[in-house]
Automatic annotation (TrEMBL):
<dbReference type="InterPro" id="IPR058678">
    <property type="entry name" value="ARM_PUB"/>
</dbReference>
<protein>
    <recommendedName>
        <fullName>U-box domain-containing protein</fullName>
        <ecNumber>2.3.2.27</ecNumber>
    </recommendedName>
</protein>
<dbReference type="GO" id="GO:0061630">
    <property type="term" value="F:ubiquitin protein ligase activity"/>
</dbReference>
<dbReference type="InterPro" id="IPR016024">
    <property type="entry name" value="ARM-type_fold"/>
</dbReference>
<dbReference type="Pfam" id="PF25598">
    <property type="entry name" value="ARM_PUB"/>
</dbReference>
<dbReference type="InterPro" id="IPR003613">
    <property type="entry name" value="Ubox_domain"/>
</dbReference>
<dbReference type="InterPro" id="IPR013083">
    <property type="entry name" value="Znf_RING/FYVE/PHD"/>
</dbReference>
<dbReference type="Pfam" id="PF04564">
    <property type="entry name" value="U-box"/>
</dbReference>
<dbReference type="InterPro" id="IPR045210">
    <property type="entry name" value="RING-Ubox_PUB"/>
</dbReference>
<dbReference type="GO" id="GO:0016567">
    <property type="term" value="P:protein ubiquitination"/>
</dbReference>
<comment type="pathway">
    <text>Protein modification; protein ubiquitination.</text>
</comment>
<feature type="domain" description="U-box">
    <location>
        <begin position="7"/>
        <end position="81"/>
    </location>
</feature>
<comment type="function">
    <text>Functions as an E3 ubiquitin ligase.</text>
</comment>
<dbReference type="InterPro" id="IPR011989">
    <property type="entry name" value="ARM-like"/>
</dbReference>
<keyword id="KW-0833">Ubl conjugation pathway</keyword>
<dbReference type="InterPro" id="IPR045185">
    <property type="entry name" value="PUB22/23/24-like"/>
</dbReference>
<keyword id="KW-0808">Transferase</keyword>
Length: 395
């Protein structure tokens, strides 16, 4: 794009072509692409999602009418938008040193209301600099944090982070690299530690976005090697924190190893055990299984899972869930990895009811690939059973 033109918001760019969407369509992974780009990708024989690299159990392309409507609104707005004096006043109130926290919070509430009631305005708010401004106001130097009234400032941070997460999809994420500065990163850690659950969840959304952007990979690695942050993250035990964990795991091998050392395998096993009995599809269980599968590709990850008394049982539970075949696929692949490396894992899986789970899965409506992997796992278990029978051992 020419410098004189308004840049395309991040959300409006196809992840493959990096151009403005012309016909946005969504895959079963929830990722959206421009139809010509994703059709070219699939026609080349690939069966994964380009962004997440998850295997596609369904190749359907669902038109994203909501995003198309927002793009149309934005295209009209960038030609018609005149800066509302009230928006200018809001920005002035946020920047001014003389403005009280009460007025700043009121200003944030107006921005929050505007971004919620008129979402097509978000790209223009980003163009007016609100995304960068809010981040700079949130992550101030630690010395300044000490001088502020804790309750007022945390209320301000909470409201500001809600606005940031609303503007996040439309913003250039490379700006977040300012958090790599020592003072800003320390502020990031302090706010996450002292913040309430709402603040922590917003920061988890921020971390998940950082992990998906190649330009912020160094920042993601910096976050992933900070044990203080990881410990707070694991204690949070929410679905949003699970997304942040998966993002950090997917970002780099060093992050993966650090998370394993901090006990993330046990954390995920505990989450799965407490949620598999709940009805309905839980996409976060699938993401948890994806994270476990990544960790089991390392020796340290396999050791941690085998030491957990519920480790094998949790994976077996995830093999067949009527509402979640995506999680089943990761569970089967995870058990395949374990059983290939450990006779003990095979025996525990058989005793835990894996054979029944696999047979139920083969009779379900899951994808052909999942059924193929299930048959391979059955064959591996059968060879174990035959060998044990020859040796006179009962499993």
């Amino acid at each position: 794009m020419k410098e004189s033109q308004e840049p395309i918001p991040h959300l409006f760019r196809c992840p493959i072509s990096l151009d403005l969407f012309t016909d946005p369509v969504t895959l079963c992974t929830g990722q959206t692409y421009d139809r010509p780009s994703i059709e070219k990708w699939l026609s080349s024989g690939k069966s994964t999602c380009p962004v997440t690299m998850q295997r596609l159990h369904d190749l359907s392309l669902i038109p994203n009418y909501t995003l198309r409507h927002l793009i149309d609104q934005w295209l009209n707005l960038r030609h018609q938008f005149d800066v509302d004096p009230s928006v200018v006043e809001i920005k002035h109130n946020l920047v001014s040193q003389e403005t009280t926290f009460d007025i700043k919070i009121q200003s944030l509430e107006k921005i929050r209301s505007l971004s919620h009631l008129k979402p097509w305005m978000n790209p223009s708010l980003v163009q007016l600099g609100f995304f960068q401004l809010l981040l700079e106001l949130i992550f101030v130097n630690p010395v300044e944090l000490e001088s502020m009234t804790s309750r007022d400032f945390l209320k301000f941070v909470e409201d500001a982070l809600f606005c940031v997460t609303a503007l996040l999809p439309f913003s250039e994420l490379s700006f977040l690299n300012f958090l790599k500065e020592d003072s800003k990163f320390e502020s990031f850690l302090i706010i996450f530690e002292l913040g309430n659950d709402s603040i922590k969840m917003c920061i988890c959304d921020l971390v998940e976005a950082i992990s998906r952007c190649e330009e912020t990979k160094e920042l993601c690695i910096q976050i992933g090697r900070n044990r203080k942050y990881l410990q707070e993250l694991l204690h949070l035990k929410t679905e949003v924190s699970l997304k942040a964990i998966l993002g950090l795991c997917s970002c780099s091998e060093s992050n993966l190893q650090t998370l394993i050392q901090e006990g993330v395998v046990q954390h995920l096993i505990s989450y799965i055990m407490s949620n598999t009995k709940k009805r309905g599809r839980n996409s976060f269980l699938s993401e948890g299984m994806s994270a476990i599968e990544l960790m089991l590709r390392t020796e340290s990850g396999r050791e941690c899972l085998m030491k957990d008394i519920n480790g094998i049982n949790a994976l077996v539970r995830m093999v067949f869930r009527v509402c979640d075949h995506e999680g089943s696929e990761s569970a089967v692949d995870s058990l395949m990895i374990l059983c290939q490396h450990s006779l003990q894992a095979r025996e525990e899986a058989i005793c835990g009811g894996l054979l029944t789970q696999l047979l139920l899965l083969l009779q379900s409506q899951c994808s052909g690939r999942v059924k193929t992997r299930a048959r391979m796992l059955l064959k591996l278990l059968r060879s174990t059973w035959i060998e044990d029978t020859k040796n006179g051992k009962t499993v």
